[in-house]
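so i finally got all the pieces together for this one. its three components total, 968 residues if u count the protein bits. some of the lines might not be protein, just check the labels. i wanna see the whole assembly predicted at once instead of chain by chain like last time, that was a mess tbh
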Amino acid sequence: MIDTPKGLVSPTTATERVAASMAKRKKSERNFQLLGRSAIAVALAFLVVLFFSIFSKGLPGFFQYYVEIEVEIDREKLDPTGDLSLQSLYDGDARGVIRSALYAAVDAEGRKNKRAAGKLISAGAEQRLRELVYDDPSLMDTTQTLRFALDDDVDSFLRGFIKRETPENDRRISDKMVEYIDRLQSDGKIVYAFSDYLIFGSASRNPEMAGIYGAFIGSILTLSVCLVLAFPIGVATAIYLEEIAPKNRITEIIEININNLAAVPSVVFGILGLAVFIGIFGMPRSIPLIGGVVLALMTLPTIIISSRAAIRAVPPSVREAALGVGASQVQTIFHHVIPLAMPGMLTGTIIGMAQALGETAPLLMIGMVAFIVDVPGGVTDPGTVLPVQIFMWADFAERMFVQKTSAAIIVLLAFLITMNAAAIIVRKKLERRW
Amino acid sequence: MSDLHIVSQFQRELDAIKAKIIKMGGLVEASIVGASASLYNRDAELAEQVRAADAAIDALEQQINDEAARVIALRSPNAEDLRLLLTVIKVSGNLERIADYSKNIAKRTRVLLELRSIEGSPAALRRMAREVELMLGDALNAYVQQDQALALAVIERDEAVDQIYNTLFREFLTFMMEDPRNITACMHLHFIAKNIERMGDHVTSIAEQVVFYASGEKPTDERTKADITSSDATLSGMNPTRSIGAE
Amino acid sequence: MEDGKMVEPQKVDAPVRPDIDLAKLPNATIGDIYVENPRMTARQVRVNYGDKTAIEDVSLDIGGSEVISFIGPSGCGKSTFLRCLNRMNDTIKTCKVSGDIRLNGGDIYAPDVDVVPLRARVGMVFQKPNPFPKSIFDNVAYGPKIHGLADNTGHLKQIVQEALERAGLWSEVHNRLDDPGTGLSGGQQQRLCIARAIAVSPEIILMDEPCSALDPIATARIEQLIHELSSEYSIVIVTHSLQQAARVSKRTAYFHLGRLVEVGLTDKLFMKPQHEMTNNYITGRFG
């Protein structure tokens, strides 16, 4: 080895040199692995912190404070006309019945005290009573222990956000109310239970009554419209572009445009929807139909791009085999290419849907931010969606909304995770070896 | 002329077989020359050498056959190469037979040396052997060069060899009838003449292999057999019914 | 060309020594391109990919019940010509086919011809076995189903069985017809593809290097199968193996640089090819 070796090295020399280089190579390999592992560790740490903060804030939102009191379900008061009709119930004095029960529970005497006692309970309690009696008229003229939600200020106090130590003038709860609360608590009448309002209630200014049900249904309706529009159109477009369209300038332009649309900010689609559907066509605002159309426009590029990739992944040998046996182009596409591409197409679609589920900006633009109390019955009823609901709740001042917002975020996350899990399951089921 | 094989080992194997055939041809030519000279010059030692040299020729034939079989088995030859290998087996067989005849001549020569000499025959035999030797040389050249024209010419020349044999046959009959003491010698000489004539036929066979090798087809013309001795009873010029010895 | 783009244009290899070899090409095909009562005839076929000419002035007859093999070096055009016979070249956008190709007298490139029934009459088996990712039964049944060959389900089952029997696969798969076709071995998959082609009752079966991905035993079985099938179908086989061409085919056609150099009976061609280029190719001389 005196002179510089030129060209290929002899095997013995090569063995020596390779062995010599191993130490350095192993070291850089180890460093790289270390880097990777620490990156993963950091990411996991952040993930843990994130989930911890979400759950610690949000889980309490699934519960709220109730009071259990004995109520004399007085028929005459509740149902003046005696026919158990809704009108009668509304004319009746459910509030009074509840108030009586409450006064009895805390021994409230005097107008001022009674007013304090009345503020303890949620404004929605009377509706509860009406619904209860309407569903089960046999309860009339009986004495039942019923559970009613406490007012949100009481709830906040019980959680410790409104402090006892604060001077009364600065507190939302008067000293008398505190006294009554203590009384009820020592009597064991205050219950911390799962909040049925959260899940089944709709939008409300009263935090203790607010729930996500309406928004949930609205999300489902909007996403349904989006899916029904985006999936067939997206898949058909992908098939057209991949299999049928001739390779010329026009097709190129279409492809470029679709790829660019995937990068357009979603708010632009909202503006589009506002201008075209609501402005020009004069359709009503804030309905899931329009929301679905806007989201479909937004999701189409994702579906088209992933579907095209899935179609391209089908090996040409399958197509040749089909053509060779005498299948027409259409038969080849529908009998062979699409079944093989379907897992990829579905995965892309579900991911697109999951993305659409979390969209807020475009729906704000078309007005799905209105305060809707009723649950939308169909796609043409006004509604809102979960992310928008969360956005609205985040704005409200009451303390209880903080928990409920976090709880709603958890629900949204659960929805998203479910959709992604569905994507994985679908893909695994449909995966075929060829 | 065709180009070389892409697989050079294959090319070398074919070249080696061709070289062996040429070598064998050379040995056989030398054998003919030696046998003829030993007869003409009455050289017993030379005759012995010719006889002993036949072993090497037999060995070469075996080698050529083995190698041809091996190349066929391993290389799956087609067309030209296949024709070469098929013909080389036959040609080596022909050469081996020619050498056997030559050895035979040498053996008879040693016997003849103890018998009385016959005038004129050795010269004619020498001429005949010379012609066969030249034909063999040309046939082998034609083989290696795939020269069809040359091969066909060789086939034609066999007629002359046959003619010489016919003449010698009549001569021997005459000698034998003239003097019965000539019979033994003439019988041996006749066998020698027959051997040389058969050598000529084998050379013709080699030439026919050349035609097949070069063109892929056997020569269509019937080989002109000028040797009529086996078919013509009037060759002696005498009445066939007359018994020998009379008159 | 009526199909849209399906497969990428095939890569055509450059010939070994185009300049020298071009000069040696004969003016016209040597040997007998005609047969009596041909099933398919091709006259002056020319194929261009864009501005590159892949094959030029190829004329050839394909007879009934014969096996003819196409041999030649890479890029000589044998596969291209094969794919003209069932218009599979239609799937390549840049491909232009000119000339006259007829099946039983009818021009297969006439403007009103539908390739779908053509491809049922001229079947194809590919180099790499490509069964559909379906069950064995569905693989074979697909063709008859889309062409409406079966009268009823029972008839369809019979068609499938007979096709598998003819392809020599029935005994091996008759009890597992619902298993995926892709789960078979390479040789079995190729026989399945042959069964698939047979199931639509073609007249001609085109095979593009069908054994190149198979081991010797599987190859031998396919060659035996070709022999058995040749009594009923015409088989055109493109092969890189000279020995395979010698073993299976009755006629052999030698392509080079897009031309049909020589065609003749296989035993004659392998013993004494008439053209120097054919001789050089089959003896392995390309010096």
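Confidence is low (pLDDT under 50) at residues 237-247 of chain B.
Residues 8-215 of chain B form a domain with the Methane Monooxygenase Hydroxylase; Chain G, domain 1 fold (CATH 1.20.58.220).
anyway lmk what u think
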